[in-house]
Amino acid sequence: MSTLTAEVLSLLVPDRPEDRGILLVVVFGSAARSDTSPHDLDVVYITSGEPDASLTEAIRAARSRFVAACGTRVDTFVMTARTLWEKLARGDVQVVSLFRHIRVVYDRGMASWISSLIQTGVIRSDPSQTPRLREYALRCLSEAKNAQSHPAHRLGALRTAARSAIQCVLLSHGVEPAQPRGLVAQLSELRPAPPGLEPCVSTAERFEKRLSELVRDPASVRHADVDEWLDTVSSLVIEMLKLTGEQTLP
User: Fold this and answer.
1) CATH (one of 3.20.20.150, 3.30.460.10, 2.10.70.10, 3.10.180.10) for 6-119
2) Second CATH level (architecture) for the domain 127-242
3) pLDDT digits (tens, 9 = 90+) for 9-48
4) Taking the complete model, does pTM exceed 0.85, yes or no?
5) Which of 76, 121, 142, 151 is the most exposed place for a label (fewest CB within 10 A)?
6) Alpha-carbon separation of residue 8 from 1, 2, 19, 69 (angstroms)
7) What are the φ and ψ backbone dihedral angles of 2, each rounded to 5 degrees?
8) What strands lie across the sheet with 73-80, from one edge to the other?
């Protein structure tokens, strides 16, 4: 397994980034916490304007270059600076959580500013967004049930549904959600523990353990792997959303 040095990560930066309007490139998830190359990598590109065909192709070429060098699967996300600031300003839970734990690959002055605003609490997740996050969890759950989708996509949707539900619980109890893989630990430490929390934590821990095994080789994920957990995680999501006080659930 290769090491994610700054030089290796720089392969993700398209040529002439300033001319292309790229302001920031970061990786998040496990790659942001370790120099060891994970089995897949999530990369966010922040741009000054809407990406055109040229920029899209440049990002694709950079991703192919990195994959050829490291053999690591890469998922890329592109967001304009305006959209990013709008999401941060309204306390978007997913974006605030993402930017709490990033590894900067390329930066034209945005990263330290965002980090300081989040770390000092000027920007934080907005509890009033819990209903929106709840709807997102249920939508992801619906996507996971779609047997026509690729198994890896279904698994990703199931993972997002579970993690979004945990974020809902944390926010409803006044806790700022941490990085995605630290959510279960935060859930287990809720005090006072709401009734029904313990079995939710136990199930979430088992699912995260199985996830860590499956994501080692996303290409080998089968529908049977998703179906094995579908009912369990669906029930988990519903039970956790009920912990937020929401009772009108499917």
Assistant:
1) 3.30.460.10
2) Up-down Bundle (1.20)
3) 999 999 999 999 999 999 886 565 554 445 668 899 999 9
4) no
5) 121
6) 13, 9, 22, 8
7) -75, 165
8) 73-80, 40-47, 22-28, 102-107
